[in-house]
Protein: Homeodomain-like protein
Amino acid sequence: MSDNLTIIKGPWNNLEDEKIRMEVERYKTLYPNQQISWKFIEEAIQNRTAKQCRERWTNHLNNVNKSPLTVEEERLILQLREDDPNISYVQISEKLPGRTPLIIKNFIYRERIKAKKSIIRIRQLMSINYINH
Structure:
């Protein structure tokens, strides 16, 4: 990136989103069957880093399904984690079209928090019952 450009931090605007869509399509046309070079996209977008461009595309613009996970999707995620505790968020997201690794990660973390809160409630109830008897 050129030294005289200022990197923008914070929310993307519609113009930037449209520009990244156009540049990704242009890149795919120029270099079919190649992974996207985010450095290439960064140079076209300007004022945003390659990492910002990649994350914006991956987590917001590339056919991302932002609706809540369905019960079937939740079951599949939990089953995949049970079958292979070391499976990555990326590997799980590949089995759920439209769902990003970030969506998967957030679901798993929420489930962990729910489980911890449930254990704490059970322990509290057990200690109350123990005191009362």
User: Anything to note?
Assistant: The two ends are 70 Å apart (CA to CA). The chain has a mean pLDDT of 89. DSSP finds six helices and no strands in the chain. The chain has two domains: 14-61, 71-132.
